[in-house]
Amino acid sequence: MKIRIQHVIFAFIRSNLTLKQFKLEPLKVKPMETNEKNLVEMSVIGEVSSPQSGSSPYSITPDGKPKVLPGIGGITYNVKVGDNAIQWEADHVEPCVSVRNKDRDENGALNLLSCIGNIARVITGDAKGSMGVVTGKHGGIENVLADFDDKTLEKLAIGDKVLIRGIGVGLSFSGYPDIKPINISPDLLKVFPIRGDRAKNVLHVPVTHVIPAAIMGSGLGSQNCYRGDYDIQLFDKQNVEKYHLQSLRFGDIVAIMDADHSYGRIYRTGAVSIGVIVHSNCVAAGHGPGVTTLLTSAEGKIIPYLDNAANIGIYLQIGRFRKKSKKKR
Prior knowledge:
The protein is of the alpha+beta class. The chain folds into two domains: 5-35 and 171-319, tm1086 (SG structure) domain (tm1086 (SG structure) fold), CATH 2.102.30.10; 41-168, Thrombin, subunit H (Beta Barrel), CATH 2.40.10. It contains six helices and 19 strands. It has helices spanning 5-14, 104-113, 150-155, 186-191, 237-242, 312-316, and strands spanning 42-48, 59-60, 66-67, 75-76, 96-100, 119-122, 131-138, 143-147, 161-166, 180-181, 195-197, 202-207, 209-212, 218-221, 230-231, 253-260, 266-279, 290-297, 302-306. A six-stranded antiparallel barrel has the order 1-5-8-7-6-9. Strands 10, 13, 15, 16, 17 and 18 form a six-stranded mixed sheet that branches. The protein has a three-stranded mixed sheet with strand order 11-12-19. A hairpin with an 8-residue loop joins strand 6 and strand 7 (131-138). The longest helix has 10 residues, at 5-14. The chain is globular, with a radius of gyration of 19 Å.
């Protein structure tokens, strides 16, 4: 009897055995059939946001140590998609450019309608006309994150306006009713090597890491996953080593097992959700590198397989995977 290697890998993933990462070359397949032709493409706007700090500069670690570190917002010149997300002296740092609208409701629309892989265009300032790509959404601060090339970063200033062509909300798969796309643009989906099995109504999805829902933290309790993210807690060394979490990169696509993101983030045995790493590790209790949802299945109709190349930077040719980029960390 022939057994697909991805199914064998999945069996190891769902067990308590430790599985070292290795690379599987995804098969060339036809693009997923979707309702893309019926989606609305709509502009949303924000501006390059300033870094922020409260009255106290300190973040307190779970073992009671105060830390002063750079964090959210701004133009981050040396942190990009493809870099390690764990090793920085930072707390919630956002790679490349953070975008926000000062009006609360307009910012809500910016975060709702922007999808990973959407085009972002600078429309004011010295970098006017430069094009970038949406790479994530950061909850709490409600920032949309975008990647631009180095020349654009040198010209950008805080306050420059960025227009995003939002398309992706309402996306659905033809023939896979138990799998829900969230925050993923048609452009990303077209280069995402997902393999469909219509006979079993499942999708085989490449990921760099497989993560148990039990270690997910900040962001739980949200009633939807169309905005923001939730964090992978890295305070337990055994789990960090077991699931190879020290190697997480910005842009990595990861699977969260026993997690249902259909209408908020909940623990559900057998459910599987897929997301992308959007911000760095954090030192405060309950926090860690953030994951923005891309796909979810309450019925477990997603089968992840390990692939070290499962990163939006590789798929979209952005961040450290652009033809010209400064030295990788």
